[in-house]
Write a structure and sequence with these properties.
Length: 79
């Protein structure tokens, strides 16, 4: 995936019933649409797949999330 695929999320995102910002932006990976919802609260970042009916949530510290974002920007996850 090229860096361009990460793009910017739209300025307007809706917020779901649990307080997660859900963007209409998607990334196509291996012919699959991928969309995540993100919630930032209490120094933690919570992320979940919008298609998961069980709303499984991954929680990261601010430092962990910043490391991930830096890795994406530096193209560290492409093989």
């Amino acid at each position: 995936m090229s860096k361009k695929a990460y793009g910017r999320l739209p300025l307007e995102a809706r917020v779901d019933e649990d307080g997660f910002a859900v963007s209409s932006a998607t990334i196509i990976t291996n012919q699959r649409l991928t969309c995540v919802a993100v919630k930032i609260a209490g120094g933690q970042v919570q992320v979940r797949d919008t298609k998961d009916p069980h709303k499984t949530t991954l929680t990261f510290s601010s430092e962990e999330w910043q490391s991930f974002v830096t890795g994406v920007k530096n193209d560290e996850f492409n093989s």
